[in-house]
Request: fold
Amino acid sequence: MGDDVMALIPLKQTAVISPFIGLDPDYNEPSYGDDYELRCRFDEEAKLVRNQHGEEVVSSGAFLFDKLAAITLSDKLTFTNELGTETTYDPITIAVIRDFSGRPILTEVSV
Reply:
């Protein structure tokens, strides 16, 4: 299978990723690099997930990205729905879904 193979599920939506690059040395505020777009599927659903500290928190939705997406918990994800409403999310958890051979097929980011 090559890299030109279609994703496991249709990825007909787009998310804008703002990659975290560090803290501003003067103001100690997060700094972000250049935004980029990734094809995705976004499902809005409230559910309980565990954050990086093991605490139960409510997730408002989940993004699915093709293969192994280079997204971190410090990045920002912005999604514009079909009504034109733009929302920016902070990742809560990131899970890589792998096939039986261990290859990454999807990255799930709960927000």
